[in-house]
Amino acid sequence: MAIKIKTYLRLLKESATAFIDDNGMKLCASLAYYTVFAIGPLLLVILSLAGLFFEQEAVNGKVVYQIQSLVGAEGAATIMDIIKNMQQQNTATKFSIIGIVVLIISATGVFAEIQDSINYIWSIKAKPKKGWLKYLKDRLLSFSLIVGIGFLLIVSLLASTVVDALTERLQMMFADVAVIFFLILNHVITYIVVSGMFAVIYRVLPDARIAWKDALIGASFTGVLFLIGKIAIGLYLGNSDFGNTYGAAASIIILLSWVYYSAIILYFGAEFTKVYALNEGAGIKPYETAVFVVKEEAKELPHKHHKGGVADA
Fold first, then answer.
1. How far apart (Å, rounded) are the C-alpha atoms in residues 56 and 251?
2. Three-class secondary structure assignment of 98-161
3. Is the pLDDT of residue 302 over 70?
4. Which pTM was predicted?
């Protein structure tokens, strides 16, 4: 047991060092900025997919509740306003193929950004050949992940229905026990869904092969970080007076802050997954369409780039 603890502490230390060396905070800031422009199309596609199986009002209510629990009422209202405006535009251009293509490209942009960042964290780079084919493949993969998130939303709705029914039964018999049961079960469901999503991202999105076991271990660790971070971020956002500081831009700042801190968890989890796979797992191997990239410091450029002048002066 002591050896296991020492091993995981060493892995955590290596992950933290790698996160700093890879400019993880910069990658997180980039994702936060990109998400502000892509969150509307992304959620619109997810809501539309989930709406095929459930009443649209029920789906919207579930999404609003989840967003509100993460970014607060003000941030949730801003996001839903964006979605409503896009739904109106989508209705006006319902039969526009160009509009649908633009919507899908915008929605998949977040996952393309995450793919590039995890590739960089894992020292992977896609080969430049057949750029258009890879672009289409990546967008199709990203859209598949969006469909997967829509499926998770449907599962979450079904689970919520079952939990609500069980809670009502328990409240009739044991009121206090029902509240505790609901809280624990809610956290367990959230952890399973979030960890599953992280596992799929780490296993499928990068241009590299990694064993499912390694991806699941990394995702389980990241899921714990997410639950802890969700509480911490909620406390921070709840006790910060963004309204007085930023005025009308407060809701956007809240959204940026939440995505930024969530990105830290996602990318630190990617670092941990990499470190675990390389040290304790089955390793990481790039696909045939990608190669490893060596990151190292040097006091001068490679000889083919060095033309003299400064060094000779």
1. 25
2. HHHHHHHHHHHHHHHHHHHHHHHHCCEEECCCCHHHHHHHHHHHHHHHHHHHHHHHHHHHHHHH
3. no
4. 0.81
